[in-house]
Specification:
The chain is an alpha/beta fold. Helices cover 26% and strands 29% of the residues. The protein contains 6 helices and 7 strands.
Length: 179
């Protein structure tokens, strides 16, 4: 795991613009609305959602990542409101009931869950895939069952805990609808 995200986004070859498969599957079943991509990196998911007609807000702590996202969005003529902000400082408030979809791929900040829950409009979705604890774990990993428990009072449309194809690291995936 890179310790310096600015460096990660400036090294050639580190960029992946393929959207998360779970997001592709879910977004294909929804009418576009307003979406929030948390810890968006260079914007693979934000760009995908915008290409489908979603009104996208994207946030990441890396100014290099946000610069790349803005450049790609301009090149592809996509409107994305992209912000550089450290989610851990509460500098980027998640608007209560402001989003039809909030996605979080491979970013864990436990105290953000309550803000995510409040930010999803009733009847709308939270989609995430986050690493689970394994032998090579760092502190930003979920415990088994933790993500399901966090959203246990929502309608869970999909949940799995399994090794991720390609690298074998275990992840938890969730698609949950707010009542």
């Amino acid at each position: 795991m890179p310790r310096n995200w600015e460096e990660h986004y400036t090294v050639a070859g580190n960029l992946d613009f393929v959207p998360a498969p779970l997001l592709v599957e879910v977004a294909g079943m929804l009418s576009p609305g307003r979406a929030l991509d948390l810890a968006c990196g260079a914007g693979r998911n934000a760009l995908y959602l915008a290409s489908l007609g979603w009104d996208v807000v994207a946030v990441d702590s890396s100014s290099s990542a946000i610069r790349i996202l803005r450049e790609r969005a301009a090149k592809e003529q996509l409107l994305i409101r992209a912000y550089t902000s450290d989610l851990e400082t509460d500098a980027f408030p998640i608007e209560p009931a402001g989003f039809d979809l909030i996605c979080d791929f491979f970013y864990l900040q436990r105290d953000l869950f309550s803000h995510i829950r409040a930010g999803v409009r009733p009847g709308s979705l939270f989609v995430a895939e986050i690493h689970l604890r394994d032998a090579n774990s760092h502190r930003f990993v979920l415990e088994a069952g933790e993500l399901r428990a966090e959203f246990s009072d929502w309608k869970i449309l999909h949940y799995s805990e399994a090794a991720r194809p390609g690298n074998g690291r275990p992840t938890a995936q969730i698609v949950a609808r707010r009542a």
